[in-house]
Design brief:
The complex is a heterodimer.
Chain A lengths: L1 H34 L6 H19 L3 H22 L9 H22 L16 E3 L4 E3 H23 L1 H11 L1 H6 L4 H27 L5 H4 L1 H11 L4 H21 L4 H15 L11
Chain B lengths: L11 H9 L8 H12 L4 H23 L8 H16 L6 H23 L4 H21 L1 H4 L25 H23 L1 H11 L1 H6 L4 H27 L9 H14 L6 H19 L1 H18 L3 H19 L1
Classes of the chains: A mainly alpha, B mainly alpha.
């Protein structure tokens, strides 16, 4: 019985971490699938959004939820501007140019934040309502983790509906599967790119704010967790919301469990697993077969 | 109808091919400068040694990225493999002789490159990028875990490297021997790479970079060429890592990290890739700038570096050498029209 509770609480922690991973990575997956753009600056948007949220709460006394909305809007607007001005020039460029451009962008983000705000960790104070423990019937558990799981489920449900049941979702899916065909059907791809990019970066900002409680928030955030976001996207498959969701849960739970039982070799195991998975299915676990 | 062989040697394409691998007038200049540096700046030989090793490492990346067109974020895996080979053999008293140690480093790195290349190069695009990144991260974790052999996070220091030819000591404070040793090794490796890229093998690599489908169609063994190139580049990166470990007498996890892999990529692109001397120009520009700026204004340095990368990706895809070539060409046409 004790053992069962132990497993349940560990799963809960892993699932909560997975939800944050999902919220950050989903935008990366869709923009990579849609535009074929290797965007290594995605973690940078999560970091900037997290800062916007933390600073809005600290200096303007905004509540947690309004601050999250603020972070989403600010990051989405900034990234839409960047997309129109700079990213759009590189859609047809080589992968190498995209990698260089986005690495440069990350460096600039990290350096600017360090210069303007400082290199130290930004504390993000949760509202008292979300602190403490909650009684789940079988076990006591941290309220915030439970809230994260609920929020994650709501978001994945919303995204699924938006993707599968709305016109813009259908347009995105069409463009991911066959861009030329979608274009010739009269879908405005450039506008679609901008909207998706801004929305994806906004989601990353949300994830940056929601995850700051256990991932921390400092300028190096942008590079520190990038490999994890990329692994989630690569394993989940490009442009697949549900694929990214399952991959994020898998990686989140695995990371949590491994860190607990094999604190030494856990990360190595995840890398090895990713390599094997990608060799077995280069398009990711849930991706469509590359044509 | 003229027979096809009449005059094919005069064809501009044939002439361009024939003249490509000839030694050009300016080619001895960098080597003369490198030798002069030894006499003029005896106080900066440590910096000079680091610079030469960086050039060698960037050269290995140029082979795989600039000529074969494989976009990798994991080149430091081979640098680290070479460095740890030298470091572990010396620290545990198995092998201390430097030159054969370098050969062992090259062999080990080439084996890692061959093994990973055989499986990784089936993929392309984002998957390949991720796999190179994960392979490097896996090696880094492995080096961290095998604490008893690799020293883990602290690395291995004060490696007992035997004197070169039994006569010339590696003195970390006055790195005279190191500088000349690294310069010689760089020259040998450069000759190898130069011969390689102008050989039919090198031409076929360029063909694969430009149009893989067409190279398949003409019957070139694309996979085998790519894997071989990957392994050769790994061997050179291994030599760079091994010589770095010998010159500094230590190894640490930093030799395997993403930082090193990203830096060498930046250096190569800054100088200009798929041009043999891009590695030289890029390394000199980057190392001199970072040596003076990064210590005084580390954050501003990062900001400037980021800006530089963005500008290069957007406007100057061929780096410093590309800009210089374009300027020379423009000058040439202007004179021709005058």
């Amino acid at each position: 019985m004790i053992f069962g509770i132990d497993i349940a609480s560990m799963l809960l922690g892993g699932v909560a971490a997975g939800m944050v991973l999902f919220i950050v990575s989903v935008g990366l997956s869709v923009t990579m699938g849609l535009m074929g753009f290797v965007n290594l600056a995605h973690g940078g948007f999560a970091m900037l959004g997290g800062y916007a949220i933390a600073l809005a709460m600290k200096h303007w006394g905004l509540g947690f939820v309004p601050a999250l909305v603020f972070g989403f809007v600010v990051t989405a607007a900034a990234s839409a501007m960047l997309e129109r001005l700079l990213y759009a020039r590189l859609y047809r460029a080589s992968e190498l140019d995209q990698v260089l451009f986005t690495i440069g962008l990350v460096f600039m983000m990290i350096a600017s934040v360090t210069l303007l705000i400082g290199p130290e960790n930004q504390p993000l104070a949760l509202p008292t309502m979300l602190q403490g423990q909650i009684n789940l019937g079988i076990t006591q558990y941290r309220t915030y983790s439970v809230v994260l799981i609920v929020v994650g489920i709501v978001i994945v449900g919303g995204l699924w509906l938006g993707f599968e049941r709305t016109q813009i979702g259908a347009q995105i899916r069409a463009a991911v599967d066959n861009r030329r065909m979608a274009e010739s059907l009269g879908i405005n791809i450039a506008r679609l790119f901008t909207i998706t990019f801004a929305f994806g970066s906004g989601m990353a900002a949300l994830g940056g704010g929601l995850g700051a409680e256990f991932l921390g928030l400092d300028p190096q955030y942008a590079l520190k967790y990038l490999v994890y976001f990329l692994i989630v996207v690569a394993v989940g498959g490009l442009g697949r919301v549900t694929g990214v969701f399952y991959a994020a849960l898998l990686i989140g739970v695995l990371d949590f469990v491994l860190k607990k039982y094999v604190p030494q070799g856990g990360t190595a195991f995840i890398y090895a697993l990713t390599i094997l998975l990608l060799l077995w299915r280069p398009q990711g676990l849930f991706g469509a077969k590359a044509t | 109808m003229t027979p096809p062989q009449a005059g094919w040697a005069d064809h501009p394409a044939a002439r361009a091919l024939a003249s490509r691998h000839r030694v050009r007038m300016w080619e001895p200049i960098p080597w003369v400068l490198a030798l002069a540096f030894y006499f003029v700046f005896p106080k900066y030989l440590g910096f000079g040694t680091e610079l030469l090793v960086t050039i060698l490492f960037a050269l290995s990346l140029d082979l795989v990225l600039g000529y074969a067109g494989i976009v990798t974020l994991g080149q430091a895996a081979f640098f680290g493999a070479g460095a740890y080979t030298v470091g572990m053999l010396a620290k545990h008293g198995i092998w201390k002789e430097p030159i054969t140690g370098l050969i062992l480093a090259a062999v080990v790195a080439a084996a890692v490159g061959l093994g990973s290349g055989l499986v990784l190069l089936r993929t392309h695009g984002l998957t390949l990028l991720m796999l190179t990144l994960c392979t490097m991260a896996l090696l880094e974790e492995a080096a961290n875990l095998a604490h008893d052999y690799t020293g883990g996070f602290d690395g291995l220091d004060s490696l007992p490297i035997a004197p070169l030819f039994g006569a010339f000591e590696f003195n970390p404070l006055y790195p005279k021997t190191q500088y000349l040793y690294v310069l010689t090794v760089l020259f040998v490796c450069f000759l190898f790479v130069r011969t390689l890229v102008y050989s039919p093998f090198g031409q076929s690599l360029t063909g694969i970079r430009e149009n893989m489908l067409r190279m398949h169609a003409v019957g070139a063994p694309v996979r085998r060429r790519l894997v071989l190139c990957y392994a050769l580049s790994a061997a050179i990166a291994g030599v760079a890592g091994g010589i770095w470990a010998q010159a500094n007498a230590y190894v640490n996890l930093g030799t395997l990290g993403l930082d090193r892999a990203a830096t060498v990529l930046i250096i190569l692109v800054l100088g200009g890739y798929s041009r043999l001397y891009g590695a030289f120009i890029g390394a000199v520009a980057y190392m001199v700038l970072s040596h003076f700026l990064s210590k005084i204004y580390p954050t501003a340095w990062q900001l400037g570096l980021g800006l530089l990368l963005v500008v290069i990706a957007l406007f100057a895809r061929n780096g410093i050498l590309g800009i210089a070539e374009a300027a020379v060409r423009r000058l040439g046409t202007r004179q021709a029209t005058l």
